[in-house]
């Protein structure tokens, strides 16, 4: 069975959740934030505070984080955990994995990417007793993150 939903973040602006539900959407994944490569500082999504209240009123709700492996990955995981641990959550946490390079454009070694992501995942697991869904694509995951045994 497939469910229809969408990711919710600041680029979409204000979402009309009753309209989304009436259109047949069943879930929303609210962006809690991410790590910026250029600053290295974790950030909270501008619309998180509104969406965390409105989305669960109409749709099954989950939360996602944009993972930046060069930007304080422990602090990112801690911030994500702390933002969502008291929220209504119908879908386990999601981590969006798209980054694989240092700021100068060279690839980060797979062992480093794996280690940093695993620390992030373990911090979330320790709070929720489930591992986050990893949202990525095979053209990035396979060549850059490889095939770590913990990701099976």
Rg result = 16 Å
Mean pLDDT: 92
Overall number of strands: 6
Helix count equals: 5
| Class computed from helices, strands and strand pairing | alpha/beta
| Element order: H for helix, E for strand | EHEEHEHEHEH
Give the percentage of residues in beta strands: 15-25%
Task: Flag low-confidence runs.
Answer: none
Query: How helix-rich are the residues, as a percent range?
Result: 25-40%
Morphology:
globular
Termini separation comes to 22 Å
**Largest sheet, described in full?**
6 strands, mixed
Core attributes:
single chain; 152 residues; alpha/beta; globular
Overall description:
By secondary structure, the protein is α/β, with parallel strands linked by helices. 37% of the residues lie in helices and 20% in strands. The protein is built from 5 helices and 6 strands. The protein has helices at residues 17-22, 48-58, 73-84, 110-128, 138-145; strands at residues 5-8, 27-35, 42-44, 60-67, 94-97, 133-135. Strands 1, 2, 3, 4, 5 and 6 form a 6-stranded mixed beta sheet that branches. A hairpin with a 6-residue loop joins strand 2 and strand 3 (42-44). Helix 3 runs parallel beside helix 4. The longest helix has 19 residues, at 110-128. The mean pLDDT is 92.
């Amino acid at each position: 069975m497939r469910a229809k939903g969408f990711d919710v973040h600041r680029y979409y602006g204000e979402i009309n959740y009753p309209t989304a539900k009436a259109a047949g959407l069943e879930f929303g994944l609210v962006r809690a934030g991410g790590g910026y490569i250029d600053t290295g500082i974790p950030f909270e999504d501008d619309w998180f505070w509104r969406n965390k209240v409105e989305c669960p009123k109409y749709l099954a709700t989950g939360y996602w984080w944009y993972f930046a492996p060069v930007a304080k990955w422990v602090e990112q995981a801690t911030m994500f955990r702390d933002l969502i641990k008291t929220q209504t959550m119908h879908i386990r946490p999601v981590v969006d994995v798209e980054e694989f390079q240092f700021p100068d454009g060279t690839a980060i070694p797979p062992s480093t990417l794996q280690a940093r992501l695993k620390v992030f995942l373990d911090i979330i697991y320790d709070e929720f007793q489930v591992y986050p869904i990893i949202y990525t694509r095979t053209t990035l995951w396979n060549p850059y993150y490889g095939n770590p045994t913990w990701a099976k």
